[in-house]
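Worked Example 4.2. Consider the chain below.
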Amino acid sequence: MKTDKHKLQAALVRSFFDAFSSGVIDCGQGSVQERRQPQNVKRAMLDYYEQIAPAFFETVFFPLAVIHSGYEEMERMVRKAHQQRMDMRSMLLAACGSEACYEALVAEYKRNFSALLEGACPSVAAHLAACAKQQEGEGIDTDQAIELTVRAMVRAYASGLRLAGGQQLPPGLPLPLAPRRDERAAPRREA
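Applying the procedure from the previous section yields the following structure tokens:
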């Protein structure tokens, strides 16, 4: 079974913002209802405005590179980035594989971040409605898509917790850690 790469990319962005903001909000004071009030969500995102882009990059670079290029190409990209001291934008563009995919990533980033600045992460229904408008494209193995998305959500939530708990992301360009070759899931065979 295959999952559309463009829809998966949009799901990764939404998942990042949902999980990251949840991590930040969960570290806040007061009841869950108080912390989830729109003005408190907005304030929390503004408090960490400068750290959101690096946390986003750290979270989604690896899954995007794997989705659009595969593991081997992702490893080549990381080596090249170290050698050429590429910035986050250049690396995300490389991970997306095309200007069109990168522009879609930026648009989804802006849509989700704008929603948080209005006080809430886009609902799953709103996200699915936006994805339904996209044309079907090339697919990626659904099991791999699930693994990449869950990994990104956990990493984003942990980033939110770390930042709200007073730990900063390392200075410089944070390069995401990819699983070692022996940790990668072997391709699943369909019965």
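Confidence is low (pLDDT under 50) at residues 171-191. The longest strand covers residues 2-4. Compare this with Example 4.1 before moving on.
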